[in-house]
Amino acid sequence: MRNIAHYIDGKTVSGLSGSKGDVFDPNTGKVQAQVELGDAGLVDKAVQSALKAQKEWAAQNPQRRARVMFEFKRLLERDMDALAHLLSSEHGKVIADSKGDIQRGLEVVEFACGIPHLLKGAYTQGAGPGIDVYSLRQPLGVVAGVTPFNFPAMIPMWMFAPALACGNAFILKPSERDPSVPVKLAELLIEAGLPEGVLNVVQGDKVVVDAILDHPDIRAVSFVGSSDIAQYVYGRGAANGKRMQCMGGAKNHGIILPDVDMDQAVADIMGAAFGSAGERCMALPVVVPVGEDTANILRSKLVAAVEGLRVGVSTDTEAHYGPVVSAQHKARIESYIQMGVDEGAELVLDGRGFTLQGHEGGYFLGPTLFDRVTRGMKTYQDEIFGPVLQIVRTQSFEEALSLPSQHPYGNGVAIFTRNGDAAREFAAQVEVGMVGINVPIPVPVAYHSFGGWKRSGFGDLNQYGEDGVRFYTRTKTVTQRWPKGGAVEDQAFVIPTMR
Ligand code: NAD
Predict the structure, then answer these.
(1) Which atom of ligand 1 is nearest to the CA of 250?
(2) 147 touches ligand 1 (CB under 6 Å)
(3) How distant is the alpha carbon of residue 98 from its chain centre?
(4) Does any ligand 1 atom lie closer than 6 A to the CB of residue 156?
(5) What is the pLDDT of residues 151-184, one digit of tens each?
(6) What's the topology of domain 2-248+456-478?
(7) Is 3.40.309.10 the CATH classification of the domain at 253-437?
(8) Which among 100, 195, 285, 291 would be 20 to 30 A from 441, CA to CA?
(9) β-pairing, 368-371 with 346-349?
(10) Sign of the CA dihedral 37, 40, 41, 47?
(11) What's the pLDDT tens digit per position in 454-469?
């Protein structure tokens, strides 16, 4: 059986901790590999290697660090097919979607290629007599990232691309459910010229995460995962004096105004709700039509579109989506569908009981559509993270605006309309971090930053973009004075001011 090990100092590190976890193929339900689960000793080994490598890496000029990123991007493009197949075999998403996962990470690598420009500081000449002031950004040292299962390529790259380009060393703790691609990324970075030890991968579960949070030499931790764990990680890391950014779960709404181009909106909603089997933090699992007529037209078009969906194995190029990640997750989604029925929502299409011929052991679920979901329902409040779309009917723009604004999560939201005034008002008022206007999945491009509000994000600085550079650096401000000589200036016993 294939063994997935740690990657430290540019080498595979194996057999140093006793326990292992199973890695499944969601298409078949069979165990396809085992991943080693590290411990505090292994985290320390990775940190010691990173500490040794970091200073020299930080001392290289930023253009040289950028060259490693340029080469890494070339290697990602070279290996795109193989990486996508490996990713799909552990995650379950279709190959084209795995390529998208890699490509969105690659775009952050492209952003990191501009690091010489991004690290330029600020300079003020003549802030006082003979006084100049400059601010510069210095790397933090050794930093770490803990990532979820649903984007095993993109999210590690969101984190380590800016972190490394800024001159840090990075410890990556990937999801134990699809741990192979992160190791491949680390190997490609070494091939691209990254010095050994600057990026280390430690496989594991809570034990490794806690060891990272408690390690005194790790200066900052970036986390992406579910909200309860994000909040826990944020609290424990911050209590240990670390800089923290922790992204959590989501329940994103799509608001449909009566003037919408309904065919286009339905096409957009279908991809956003069911793509990747709904296992995206920027999925769109709730649609909010305004007015009964809008709701009825939307529902009839959605039913037709959902009935046309094709569920298949990851390698099926015609499939719209593949299996969900694990048997437990499938059972959890099914229990939420039952809960929706019990709560009184109208089950329009039921995805339970779906099997794919020849793949009866795979974790497949058909698409589910609920209508007449209301705000008090637990199935509305919670993140289901599966191929389940809920319609919440509203009677006014204000009511529709209040739904995402009052929801405990605040990751993404989209409004579909031709009315510029309404869209502008919505974007200004809604209590959500990322807004799409006729854009169903408003994940910001690599040179903006990604982050949700409320229970979708703990911490101040967002992922990638300029916030990423801020997160992985600290500002030093130097005030320098070069007196002309001659007469000694008066001693000052009051605080110096700019008067
Ligand atoms: P998860 O919270 O189960 O796991 C995330 C990471 O935390 C993994 O590396 C895991 O090993 C670790 N972990 C798990 N339990 C832990 C514990 N008790 N203590 C410390 N660490 C622990 O999340 P997941 O199921 O892998 O990913 C899906 C979740 O991630 C969804 O809620 C989704 O919305 C969210 N997500 C959010 C974003 C975002 O940017 N906001 C992006 C992608 C996914």
Answers:
(1) 34
(2) yes
(3) 14
(4) no
(5) 999 999 999 999 999 999 999 999 999 999 999 9
(6) Aldehyde Dehydrogenase; Chain A, domain 1 (3.40.605)
(7) yes
(8) 291
(9) antiparallel
(10) positive
(11) 999 999 999 999 999 9
